[in-house]
Structures are given as structure tokens and as C-alpha cells.
Amino acid sequence: MNEEKFTGKADVYDKYRPTYPAEIIDWLYEKTHAETVADIGAGTGIFTKCLSAKPWKITAVEPNADMLEKLRANCPNIEIVNASAENTGIASGSIDLVTAATAFHWFDKKKFKAECQRIFTPKGQLAIIWNTRIECDMWKERNEIFTNIVGQCDSVKSNINNDGKFAPEKYFTEFERVSFLQSMKMDMELCVGCEMSRSYAPQKDEPAYEKLFAEMQRLFEKYQQNGIVDVQYKSDCFLGKY
Question: What is the pLDDT of residues 221-230, one digit of tens each?
Fold first, then answer.
């Protein structure tokens, strides 16, 4: 797992990244009948907090020190482990459901699979969850700006197939999928902050920061209506044997 990508970004990540639909948690709960859940690559606990709506026993695993500090503050009643996705330290045969919410692309897939198989109970399953913006003119322009300034516009290239989508059949032996739409109404602070929280966005002490920040503000002003842009997300959950 790439453990340092978000060093120095925990505050902005926690403040501006979108949450996940409650319907995903309901669906997972009904489908798995899980009693124990490990949220791997938990970050600041955005998805972990969603999991807390159900009575399962949750363990959150996060390797980055900055993210871990926020995770502990956000989820004080949850067991938290400072470890990588590939070596969680969780007891063997103890987890019914492993979740990875907007984190799977950072993992060493071969080692992560072996670790899941080690900690799974006999009914163990993996849920991979993504929040993906629905493409529109604003986000096409956003991608061009990022590409021009920092050389990339996403961080999931290792997980996509030729048509640009996640390919679950590469990872699951069998799986089910559910999708929900979210409408996120963002003011300038939220919209720009979300973009500056990206792993590949420069930090404040880096040369490209001011240029990218200004371009994100300009982009917001171009597309806002009454001080708001309505950002459409699709939240996907892939659940299955791994």
C-alpha cells in the first residue's frame, strides 16, 4: 500500500471528500449478515463512520500517521489498527466482511488478497466501494487542468480496463454490484477543497499549488449558479468472494 500519498492532507481530505450513501451500508448488511467488519485503508474514517450505523464489530486499518490521527478522532469507539492493507495484524479467521472504500487502487493486489484470505472467516467477502463523478463539461475541463498542471487527473489507472472502468472480474471469483446516485451541492470552498485533497494535487509549499488553486476557483466561477455547483456522483459497491 502506498502509505505516504496523503501525508499532510488529512485535514483537507476529511473536510471536503464526499461521504457514501446509507443505502450501500443497508445493502451490505442484508447481503452479508456479517458480524465482524474490517475497513481497510480507512483514511480519516469517512466510510468507517457510515459502517457504524449497523451493530457489527468494526476494525479500521490505516497506515498513514496523519490520516490515522483524524480516524481516531472521528471514530473514538471503533478498534483502530495502524497497519497496511497487506499486513493488517488482524487475527486469522476473524473477519466476515472486508471493505475498501476508494482505497483499493493503492493496495498491492496479490499481497492484499493473501491477507484477506488469512483474516476471512469461512463466509468472508470483500466489498470494494467507489465514489465516481459523473462526467460533464465541468469535469472534462477539470481533468484537462489537472493534466496540464500536475500531469495526471486521477489515481486509479492501475484498476481500469480499456473503456476506463473498474474491472471487477479481474479480482472477484463471483460478485454482485449495486449503484446509487448522489447529488452533492458544493460551494466554492467545498468544490475547490475537494480537488486540492487529491493525492496527486500539490501541497501549499509546492510550486504548482497556487496555480492549480486559482484554476479550480476559476472553473467553479465558470459553472456555478447562485454560488453552487451540483456535482453528480455514482457510488458503486462490488461485493463478492476474493
Answer: 999 999 999 9
